[in-house]
Design goal:
By secondary structure, the chain is of the alpha/beta class. About 35% of the residues lie in helices and about 20% in strands. The chain has six helices and seven strands, in the order βαβααββαβαβαβ. A seven-stranded mixed β-sheet has the order 3-4-2-5-6-1-7. β3 and β4 form a beta hairpin. α4 runs parallel beside α5. It is globular, with a radius of gyration of 14 Å. The chain starts with a strand and ends with a strand.
């Protein structure tokens, strides 16, 4: 089982991710402007994510994937971006599937330590977000460390410790 820590969402939380070799962001096709961690990452990357979205290369559609280098603008070298489909239609089952697929893809990419934010929105409560992380992502991810960028509601639902 991977070691799990929690970090605040924001620039300070992103800066605290030293030693993590990948960041996994979940972006929905109706996320404009980019919310939460994706927005902070886009800020640090000088709008790179927004430009990719505007160009239509990545749209946030379900099962859409993108890999970006951070070019030293973040402590994390690789950024994996996962499409969620429409955030307004996000439910517990869809979230669990997306989290499990993310765990499998990151493992195939030989990611040993990852930071991620468990998506919110749609009809997904904090308990369902925590369950998707614990039952979808963690069993599928073979790496050693997971840093969760979490809001207060999710932190209460996770058996994680502050990192």
């Amino acid at each position: 089982m991977s070691q799990t820590t929690t970090h605040d969402i924001g620039l300070e939380g992103l800066d605290s991710l030293g030693g993590v070799d990948a960041l996994c962001l979940f972006i929905a096709e109706d996320d404009r402007p980019l919310p939460s961690s994706a927005g902070f990452v886009d800020w640090r990357l000088c709008g790179s994510l927004s430009r990719v979205l505007k160009a239509g290369f990545f749209t946030g559609a379900k099962d859409d994937w993108l890999l970006l280098p951070s070019d030293g603008k973040l402590a994390v070298p690789r950024i994996f971006v996962v499409g969620l489909g429409a955030r307004q239609r996000l439910d517990a089952g869809t979230l669990n599937d997306a989290m499990a697929e993310a765990g499998r893809v990151l493992s195939k990419a030989r990611v040993e330590s990852v930071a991620l934010e468990v998506p919110a929105g749609g009809q997904v409560e904090d308990a369902a977000r925590a369950a998707a992380f614990q039952k979808g992502f963690l069993p599928a991810f073979k790496g050693e460390r997971v840093a969760v960028l979490a809001d207060k509601g999710l932190v209460k639902s996770l058996p994680a410790r502050k990192g």
